[in-house]
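User: My instructor asked us to take a sequence, write out its structure as tokens, and then describe one feature of it. I'm not sure where to start. Here is the sequence I was given:
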Amino acid sequence: MAERRRKHWGWGYEDEQLPPGQLREAARGLAGHLGFGEVEIEEPVPLEAVALRAPRVEPPVDLAEVCASDAHARASHALGKSYGDVVRGLRGDFPDPPDFVARPHHEGEIERLLEWCGRERVAVVPYGGGTSVVGGVEPAVGDSYNGVVSLDTGALTQLLEVDPVSRSALIQGGASGPQLEGALGEHGLTLRHFPQSFELATLGGWIATRAAGHFAMGPTHIEDFVESVRALTPSGVWESRRLPGSGAGISPDRVLAGSEGTLGVIVEAWMRVQSRPTHRASAGVGFLDFATGAECVRALSQADLNPANCRLIDADEARLTFAGDGSRALLVLGFESTDHPVGEALGRALEICREHGGEVGERRDSGSGRRGSGGAAGAGAAGGRAAGGGSSTGGDAVGSWRTAFLRAPYVRDVFVAMGVITETFETAITWERLPALQESVTAAARAALAEVGAEPALVTCRLTHVYPDGAAPYFTVIAPGRRGEEIAQWAHVKRAVSEAIGRAGATITHHHAVGRDHRPWYDDQRPEPFAAALAGAKAAVDPRWIMNPGVLLDRPQARA
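Assistant: Let's start with the prediction itself. The structure tokens for your sequence are:
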């Protein structure tokens, strides 16, 4: 059976792409809901009409069977999935396609490819699911290389070993979310890592970008699940000892986590897994304003209750995602356990919510045989399906938001086709600085949108992850664009918001990585001695600097 092909320009697969009639219908519905946007959609430039730069190098003969240089392979690996990437892809604009795509099936082929690339001065861009929204997989490496290859790990998808005693599993780096969860599910296990990119993103990509999952508290960053990592570098194998913990110097695993393909190719990892949860309890809680809800979330994060889901969504986003009427901020609150009922923990959390003026909706407890008033139906800690209700604080409000969250990448493709700018900015900051950060970022976004004539606009905020000492606010911008000028408008807004984040002392990224798009602000955030240390580490394992050049750091200039 033929393998499904990914779209060459946007999110998902070719067989999921809406035909023009359905796309126009979707555009009419979205324009009516937003109050702006073109009903007449712009159709993507077909692949056969795309003009790509001619390949500068040919694959090595001994690896020709695992390499491809056809138009689909090169176009589909030429961009990530940022807003700007999708706009360019829609219009058939692929300025920096790879010269060819390699899809090795085993480590020996990767080692031979890296050796050839080093010898021929060809850059290597590791490619997992291609879901980067920060330019992390774009083969834009400059003219100092003879060519560039996109190294796709999509053939390395196996669950290699399960250790039921220590409850861990050895998984290849190219396994996507559904692939690894399906394989673990046969053993009654789960990795418990569900980012929005879950459908397409890979384990190696998650580790390389320090991805964060759907869970708002507790273990949610991918490095929290890593037991050991094996990577192939141009200088040899980088593999750590499998241990539950170690104080033996700087962690080799932590150095690879967040390396974004600049040090090597992550080929497999031992991951801490767990039994699938059997007890869940969840609720939706409404607040008159976002600030009050944030104070409640801070109290929850400092109460040692450790909810799995604790996402606060402002009133505008609740309305936008059909989770409310715009009069209340919505808190999506959930607990889960593999061992014991969690209704008592939810009950105490709801008491804290009421103490902060929260309006508690319908409640659901599963695994304990209980259902009653005071919580949201459906979306459990991992976000189970919602049913019933209809209230802005519970019932299908939580489910509506979750459905919108999971479908957002598909909806964005429709936004692009109808000329709507849509972008997200995520960061993290300590609690005492959160109100000022939210105010300054929102103001910067609105001012920048006005400067480029992108009005009326929606600027929303939600807290995606919470900690006892701070939170990760996630801003969404949706605005009407001008055909042909959207990328310039988007870039202006992104620059203004990123500068506001930097001035506030927040991080340029909480879980989207650095890539090429965040480099200017990452360079300001990163301590200079650390930059020198990182450059030294890269020079040691990648002496020819062929691994994803331009990401994280630039090659130091040779002294005269």
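For the description part of your assignment, you could build on this observation: Residues 396-417 form the longest helix (22 residues). Try explaining in your own words what that tells you about the chain.
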